Amino acid sequence: MVSISSLIAILAYAIALCGITPLFPWLEIVPRSAVVIGLAAGIWQDRTRAWPVKNWMFNAAVVPVFLFYAAQFSRAQPIQPVVSILAIMLAVRLAGPKSGRYYLQSAALSLFCLASSSLFNLSPVFLLYLTVMLVLVAVLMVLLTFYSQDSGMSLPPGDYRKVLAAGLLMPVVSLPLLVLFFPLLPRTPLPLWNFMVVPTTRSAGFGDSVEPGRSQSIGESRVLAFRAEMPRQSQSQLYWRGAVFSKPKGTSWERSAAPAEEVMYPRRLVTQTIYPEPGSSRALLALDAPGRISLTRSKRSPDGTYEWLGPAGRRLTYSAGSVVTGILPTRGGIDRDFYLKLPEKLSPRIRELAGTIRSQAPSDAGRLEKLELFFRNGGFSYSRQGLPTGEHALELFLFESRQGHCEFFASSFALLLRSAGVPSRVVGGYLGGEYNDLGGYYLVIEDMAHAWVEAYIEGKGWVRIDPSSFAANAGTVWGGAHAQSPMLRLRLMLDSLDHSWNRMVITYDSDRQVEAALNAGRRFQGIKVSGFLSAAIPYLLLLFLVAGISAMFVFRSRIFISREERLLRRFYRQIEREYDLPVQRGKQGLFEIVAASGNPGVRAFVDIYAGAVYRDRKLTDDEYEQLLLIMRQKFRETPS
Amino acid sequence: MTKTHNHTAITDILGVLSRDHLQGKEEVLRLSLIALLTGGHILIEDLPGLGKTTIALALAAATGLSFGRVQCTSDLLPSDITGLSVFNREEGRFIFVPGPVFSNIVLLDEINRAMPRTQSAMLEAMEERRVTVEGVTHHLPDPFIVFATQNPSDQSGTFPLPESQLDRFLICTGIGYPPEHLEKMIIAGGGIREKIVNIAAISTTGDILSARRIVGHDVFLSEKVVSYIHAIVAATRCHSMIQTGLSTRAAISLAQAARASAFLEGRDFVAPEDVKRIAQAVCAHRLVMRSEHENVDRGGVLRAIVATIPLPLV
Lengths: 640, 314
Known about the structure:
Strand order of the largest sheet of chain B: 2-5-8-1-9
Structural class of chain B: alpha/beta
Distance between the termini of chain B: 21 Å
Number of strands of chain A: 22
Radius of gyration of chain A: 37 Å
Strand content of chain B: 15-25%
Shape of chain B: globular
Shape of chain A: elongated
CATH class of the domain at 219-314 in chain B: Mainly Alpha
Oligomer: heterodimer
Number of helices of chain A: 20
CATH topology of the domain at 219-314 in chain B: Helicase, Ruva Protein, domain 3
Order of helices and strands of chain B: HHEHEHEEEHEEEHEHHHHEHHEH
Number of strands of chain B: 11
CATH superfamily of the domain at 219-314 in chain B: Magnesium chelatase subunit I, C-Terminal domain
């Protein structure tokens, strides 16, 4: 038999672990080490059963720490001091001597720690931690009630099973209610869960400028960029447009305000719902090229990109409609001068190459073709290592090393086009995506960040050209369809879980609630039934109603217990409480109970009660009142 | 229920007898009174010397009823019980001399010693409450109760009562040894047979008859209790150890006895506990066990059956 006190100690540590683990990665070094030391000290002292430091000493020691963190609190940094003090207080409670009160405190602090971890990250794992913690806390509470009676108590295994069942029952009962109430309860326009979430900055991938030649190599990043819910598309069409860079500066390209132009989008667009991961970038991504993005506080720029104007770092959801042909026709012309601007310093070798192309073909289309030929036959290869750097990076790439990543290809291609007199711009975004069949969405990671070029061809419009595809090894780098390994499939499965969590829980706001309600309404109205059936529906409903009512009538004694039964149950409970007599329900007659208790109050009750029941009549209201009065007076106190 | 004069008269018999004269015999006295109040008869199965006769005598004295005793032997003739016509020389005609059966309380000692023919005549009288001698029917007095006794351990030269005749006894019970302190008191005080004769009558025949009417008509038997009785009877009919379960007559007897028991408790309705309390005394002797379970204690089997049936409480 395990004694209650050791079980409570184990539970308390488990609860503390459950609360602190999700918060741990976000803690600063001091509270982090305090938690580790506190936990270790607590367990060690529990084993040796010696508590050299008293709780009042700990409490006194916490006061300056509290003041220190209170001073650090500011509007700019509201969360870190709070979680730090929470973690330190938990550590202190774990390290100090324990009694029922301190166990309760440590459980409460653990719960706060778990709750505050949701300010940093709210993933489905949080729900798991919360469920486990609720079960453990419930069990702890039950055990603590025993513990407060007698700290040395130990229970037989059967009783532990009962305690565990009671602990499990509470979450098991509340979870279905949670599932029911979550979609129904009124929502705020902004997802509440997101309210305090600290913006996380994403690294690598898609940035705010295209700068080839920054470093010798770029690493791989498997971090999720966004998800796009849509039917499967042809893999070669998966260009996700993010930003347009139209201002060359040295070897790099930057963003700038685009001159007005009118793009003609076709009527039919490919629709998709995008779920970007929160990050510092404000570009709203969509399949190239988006004709519409429905999100309040977003702005379209004339170069066909969209921007989010709200606060950064928020988890967003929007739907977009895209034209996927790769050509954007314009009404009227474009500002050719703007798209022909060249950097001040342009390498003479590039100028020379552009001059050759310009002289070889008179039209923009012809020049584009010539340049394509140059890239195709030039023996370029795509690489992430051994990249040229510095001021002359593009020149080195074009004429010496001939290897680089998409930014090299796109920047140099656009630069050559402009030098040759063809209006062009660099487009940044993502290429490709892993289709998740389970969730029906494309998974795009930061590693898929890409840059390509758009050239303006008179009569056609903006034409998408991906210079990276001219690389000799392009086929192996973006090697079409590859078999999905079991690991990848598992990852996709987990990802779809994460996605549905974000979709259903994190970004669930009033808009989505209204949308869900409207959808449900439409679906209900959309049910087409034949004439006979629709005429029969009211009768069927009536039939169901009648059947339900008669079933209730037939089983009324099971559904509604009678007044007598209620009284009797209460009588039994009171007898058991007052006399400590276990009543054998159904086996012990009422008069036998009278004899066993030998009490006039019990006799008075039974005389009235049995007098009605065994005369085959219901209790009258007077009798009922009288019985209640007898019970309220307590049998023991009834004068004989 | 308001305690009527009748009720007090009857319960006084129980109180006075068990307090002053027959210590430790309260249960048997109760059962005897129940038999008296329902018009049934009682069979007491126990060893000699435990006070069977004393109880019958005491009851007769306390109720003021007449008492007759028959000691059964194998040569006892029916006419020894019923009485016979003798020629009266002075009047020059036969006159009927009533036998001991023409008393209110008849003690049939060691009934299993009488030969079947005599047993049968006696049991017929018990059932019919009249005796026909030489073509003339004589009604037995009312109230009429037979105290039959038999010695279960003494088997040689006896004629055990067949099941059909056992069924005629409302109640069959034992007496048992008195508790230690009471037995010591009885040893010290000596037998009380002589004192019993001096017990003053507590009630009258009228009291008993009117109490009997109340038991028969005024004590309420609810549907719930009827169902409970039926459940007990039905359960005995499908029990694995029992060959023949309880008859409908047994069920009627159970209901009547339960009414009388409720009356003695001072209630005007039957509670399931009344049934439970007298079930063994009323029913056990009527069970016919399968041959392989012939020696099983019937009372125990019946108690077990009753325990499985839930009491109606709502």
